[in-house]
UniProtKB/TrEMBL annotation:
Keyword Signal applies: yes
Domain of life where this protein originates: Eukaryota
First and last residue of the signal peptide: 1-30
An individual GO BP term: cilium assembly
Positions of transmembrane segments: none
Protein name: BBSome-interacting protein 1
Coiled coil stretches, renumbered: none
Organism: Acipenser ruthenus (Sterlet sturgeon)
GO CC terms, sorted: BBSome
Lineage: Eukaryota, Metazoa, Chordata, Craniata, Vertebrata
Pfam families recorded: BBIP10
Record keywords, A-Z: Signal
Amino acid sequence: MPNSSRTGLPHPKKLCLVTALLISLGQLSMEDVPTMVLCKPKLLPLKSVTLEKLEKMQRDAQETIRQQEIAVKE
């Protein structure tokens, strides 16, 4: 394992990923330790543009119906 330039110690990521196990017979085997890989979070809109358009159309239609009902009552 390559040493870091400042501390002279092995790189900590290398130590986490691979663990050496010394078996009683003196044989050396390597074990790969799986680690969680986190990805960059993705920002999603709370409401899609299409949903906002549909809601606006529905509000407009309800307002038109209300105006027609008021006109009929008069």
